[in-house]
Batch of 2 targets.
Target 1
Amino acid sequence: MDSSKITERGRLTRQRIIEATGEQILASGIGGTTLDTVRAATLTSKSQLFHYFPGGKAELVREVAAWEGRQLLEAQEPEIHDLGSWESWERWRRMLVEYYIARGRWACPIGSLATQAATTDSELASAIATTMRDWREQLADGVRRMKAAGSVDSSADSQRIATVILAAIQGGLVLSQPERSAWPLEAALDNALAPLHHVATTR
Amino acid sequence: MDSSKITERGRLTRQRIIEATGEQILASGIGGTTLDTVRAATLTSKSQLFHYFPGGKAELVREVAAWEGRQLLEAQEPEIHDLGSWESWERWRRMLVEYYIARGRWACPIGSLATQAATTDSELASAIATTMRDWREQLADGVRRMKAAGSVDSSADSQRIATVILAAIQGGLVLSQPERSAWPLEAALDNALAPLHHVATTR
DNA sequence: TCGTGATTGGACTTCATGGTCCATTCTTAG
DNA sequence: CTAAGAATGGACCATGAAGTCCAATCACGA
């Protein structure tokens, strides 16, 4: 990460490589993504790939994971920092489904990376786990705000609810993929959010 | 699958290859599993691999997927064919978690294959999708039995509930993996089963 | 016993892919 | 204007993994 010796032009090239690699990984998996196809897609040369990512493919993939993680969390702004009311949760839910639909493929850039990386690259796996934890923490904060607002019973376990919601997203996407439809994702997500809604409306 | 020209000895060898490959895939993914490592683990030779799986690695992986799918459904017997009462669901839940714990790794042989295969081998992907559909259908049958028994409101959507449960399993495992614990899986699963329990007890 | 076909062993070939290297061009500070 | 260093091009190398091939061995029925 020594960005001192990099020009604006170089930074753009580097970013172009990361994004193209991310798209290819989402489309064909890590194994199905080769440096040659990345090179072709970005109109760069081998030397550039190793110039910007001295660690080779492994480092490139890690950078992709970091970038995708940031993108994913940013896509949930600003709602993810609210989630203090049922309406906010509903907006968040809509934005998230929108995000996945926009990507075209029914896969979470982080979730599918997690499955693929768990076995091969432990460093990558832990980086992804960190993103997951951040994400879960932000959702748990939202649940806490609901509790503070009295919209959710104070005995509720924020961490647990956040985990259930995240699991619903990941699992919903697994089932949405072959179905080529958002409905499994939406069904799973709605069911996971039910505790929030339910308590909020029946009180 | 012309089994006419295969002896018992050959059948055993073939099966040994399938099981060893399955273990390696679960541990290292499809890409991390090579014919050489399979050969080493099974004390066989290259020619045997191609003798029993003329289609090469692709065919071998498909056979593994089919076998793992059968194993997974069998592991849920006999409860999966009952599920007509809350007690049966509870037994089924316990058996399923037990199955994943016993495998050591927090991954579903079918779910993780689905993620990896979706992109590379469309034939494999559709075979896996079929297993998923079977599974979901059996769960949906269970929900229908609950409805028939009056334990679940007749307006409930069996398919939807089954999908939500499956998503909870898959997503729960994604989160259990980095956590190295069953609790995310159990939390997600329990939340997905809540509708069945809830209605059953509050009536 | 004998022979046919299944089974097995393992060397060899081919090819994709990650990675190295050096020459060339571009950019910018002084 | 010019030199230093960043950026780029692309040939080349090394390796690992899939797949081929032929010879050797085993097992069972006639």
Target 2
Amino acid sequence: MSSSDSDDVPLSRRKQSKPISSDDDSDVPLGKRRKTNGASKLIKEESDSDYGSRRTLSKASSARSTSSLSDANDSSSDSSGSDVPLAKRGATTNGRAKKPTSYKDESSDDSSSEDEVPLAKKKSAAPKKKPASKPAPAKKTNGKVKKESSPPPTKRKTTASSSKKRIKEEEDDSSANRKRIKKEEEEDEKEQEHQWWLDMENQDDSVKWTTLHHNGVMFAPDYVPLPSNIKMKYDGKPISLAPEVEEIAGFFGSMLETDHARNPVFQKNFFNDFRKVARQYKTQPEIKEFAKCDFTSMFEYFQEQREKKKAMTKEDKAKIKAEKEALKEKYGFATLDGRKEKVGNFMVEPPGLFRGRGEHPKTGCLKLRVLPEMVTLNLSKDAPIPPPPAGHKWAGIEHDNTKSWLATWKENINGSTKYVFLGADSSLKGISDMKKFELARELKGKVKEIRARYTAELKDKVMFTRQRATAVWLIDHLALRAGNEKGQEEADTVGCCSLRYEHVTLEKPNILHLDFLGKDSIRFQKSVEVDDQVFKNIKLFKKEPAAVGDDLFDRLKTSDLNKYLQEQMPGLTAKVFRTYNASITFQEQLALLTPKDGTMAEKLLAYNRANREVAILCNHQRTVSKNHSVQMEKIVDKIRALKYQRHKIKQTMLTLEPKLAKKRPELAEPESDLEDEWIEKHEEDLIEKDKEKARQKFAKDNEKRQSEKEKPLPASDLKDILKSLDAKLKDLVKERKTGKVINADKFTIERCDNNLLKIDERIATQRAAMVDKDENKSTALSTSKMNYIDPRITIAWCDKYEVPFEKIYTKTLRDKFKWAAVVDGSWEF
DNA sequence: GTCGGAACTTAGCAGGTTCTCG
DNA sequence: CGAGAACCTGCTAAGTTCCGAC
């Protein structure tokens, strides 16, 4: 860790580059929300049963909000409460760190960490090394890549550390290694791909391309009727269906065991559409009642097919894969301004049943097959028009270079437009991604002013202005979405501007309880301490309409809000606050949580925690896996087992040296969370497991002997072992009663102490894993990682702490974020 | 200004693949 | 070395924002 010489204290780092944006302190007022404080990190969880109780307490998603409330209560002042979750963490600090010993000294031994990276992944790390052949200039300037300022001349930085790495690698010239490097370089050459991010000055927003070529889209395969013995039943009898009808029945049949298929609205919508089609084809007998339909044989058939697919031979699987590859080769790429770029989703959406989320009124409706006649293509005039499937025509051809879509069609359920775009790793997506983050960074510079203005306006005489200010306050502090109006035919979800009376409640001094369904019908349930004036305002807004169903901000629309924001900064809209707050929170948390001289695992843990803060801020949730509680229970049991071991060790020590009880009272203390009943059962289990093991070993040994034509072991061998285990169990029972360990003299105090240490460590590890797991059960980190956190923060951090970013970003994300790889450890959001 | 539609970003889920642990 | 957890990717639904027609 001697290499840490270059590392400054994370926090101080921020100050250093101040001059660039003079008021970059502007985020301080909010900063309080993120203060987190290292203190919470140190809290040790005492009881492991704690999990159990919390779980019962927190049934819904209330765990978070509960803690948020209590946080808010005892934190002295205006912390805005979004710091909610921070208190909970603790215990985890270094638990996990122990596991992967291989990272231990990443600075001196990169070959080991490098080797962990599969070849394919290396590619993106390679370019880093290349420029090292040039004299590495002091490029540490500060990697600000401002729109106007011209970007650094070289592709990638060379930090001291990475050149060190390189040298080391070159010394090691095993041929395999050389070959590998060569391969990397070849791929690199191939990838001399126009690094648009080095040339962002003269970007004209409106024009997306000069030439655009592609092969059109792929259509869903034609329907293949089921074998004739597979039929849905109606009213108890198998019924023959025209393929067109059967297909729809199959859509439902294949998802029989899902929540969708159990949802009455889904059933109703499906059945309506199904019946309509069945009637067209004059199905006999006429299908009239959903309750009389029986799809089980279809369902079973699909299940079977699934099994078969899984059990396919390697060759068959490879074949299928190759076929897929071929199609991808054809449709999966477009040529934009002469450069090959990936297409995102080149396959038009296949027919099926619409899986609307939440209480979507149209969920279950039949999504029709898209035909070429419905699809319009967009490409340049010089591009050959891809031939539509035989016997078909395209709906139209456009040559609009202000649009980035390659194909579009209208979907029949909601009448919305669907598109085929380029992939996330394409230049077009990359450019807009980078612009998004640059805009958020621009907000960083102006946010102080903006906050000052809306804070003042919280007291404005004009109700509209007041509503607007309050809304912006919420958006800024709670990372709410704008909240457009929604139609009757959609799920009832809201964002900031569409919040209604019933979504907010107020509690005495200044606590705001929010509870509503947001995007994707994900519940937003938080309780936060708010600005006094915000509290007053909401009270006021609630008084006026005073009825469930009324808008909280009855005079405010998202367009008003965005217009207001635009006035203060061009391009500023509500969603920019989400990006800004997510990224800045991440950067701050990361600086706070990263242990300077930690192990790789500790650093990664810090990263994930910072990531989790952001996910919580943005309310990114996922459904708790069905067996989460089972898994938790397992860990609790594991810990108990460890505690039992600890208990036995202590008992041994006291048996060896009873006097120790006075000198070291902790040895005599009973383990928490270990009840006699449990111990009894556990001991029985242990012995039973040993017996089972013995039996298996015996059987295996004999098998081996037989194959080697030796005499089998006598059955009495096994019996003896089993008997001795029975005896051991009896001993344990005795020990339980007397508190004395029978064979204690096989140990020494020293050995016991050693073992104690090890057990303690393992318990700590397990506890940490448990906390981590529980905190993560319903939080999805991926969305914020992919959409909200400026990748340059990550890259800079990786550089600074010598973490290979393969450990953080998957291949897909690395490709998506390749534009960000120009920064070094000094870069700041 | 209001409305609806187009275009693009953000989102969770399902299912496949890889990793990990017993 | 096999089961189950974790992770990853693809899919497509559900948002936001902008813009143009009335």
